[in-house]
Amino acid sequence: MERSRSRIFDEYLVASAKAGDRKAFTRLAESWQKRLLAHAWRLTGDAEMAMDVVQDGWADIVHGLPRLKDPRVFPAWAFRIISRRAADAIGRAQRKRRIEAAYAAEPDAIENSANAMEFKADSNPLHQAISELPAKQRIVIGLFYLEDFSVAEIAVALSLPVGTVKTRLMHARQKLRTSLERK
């Protein structure tokens, strides 16, 4: 697989940031912020939670960057950090909801975040169809097509076997095809 210029430039920024170049780190963060935020949103489904996840993720990235041995693995490594942070945030949110439900003896509230509704209100039929996919399929589709990750990179980013990633991609494509044919 031929590496694109942007990937090579990102590798340069990672190497420079590791060496202590603050401007390189700032450019790296600017370059990856939107992609990491989109990934966090695909994982959490909540815009505020996604922003918190990415903010915490950047702290982990800053802390762990000096130990990153190969700048080429930065994308998968950063997405894996965001995936872990999102899983932690979802776990905390679920525990909080269970506690609140136990006290109130009411079912969990439905998410009504205005920012999340904006994300879901996209009128593009493809984006709308993607947002209707189950979360596990939506995540791999987003990484594969929107972030241009290879199957192996997705497997690393999500801590999944390659076969699982391929299966999720196959099912997601089938559902997207069916959904788009109906529209």
The CATH class of the largest domain, by name, is: Mainly Alpha
| Total helical elements | 9
Using only C-alpha atoms, the radius of gyration works out to 18 Å
Q: What structural class should be given to the helix and strand makeup?
A: mainly alpha
Quantity of strands, as a count: 0
Q: What kind of assembly state do the chains in view correspond to? A: single chain
- DSSP strand content: under 5%
* Fraction of residues in H or I helices: over 70%
Q: Based on Cα principal axes, name the global outline.
A: globular
Overall tally of structural domains = 2
| Biggest sheet record | none
Features of this protein?
183 residues; Rna Polymerase Sigma Factor, Chain: A; single chain; 2 domains; Arc Repressor Mutant, subunit A; mainly alpha
Could you characterize the architecture of this molecule?
- By secondary structure, the chain is mainly α.
- The protein folds into 2 domains: 1-112, RNA polymerase sigma factor, region 2, helix turn helix motif (Rna Polymerase Sigma Factor, Chain: A, Orthogonal Bundle), CATH 1.10.1740; 122-183, Arc Repressor Mutant, subunit A, CATH 1.10.10.10.
- The protein has helices spanning 5-18, 22-44, 47-64, 74-104, 114-120, 125-131, 135-146, 151-158, 162-182.
- The protein is 77% helix and 0% strand.
- It has 9 helices and no strands.
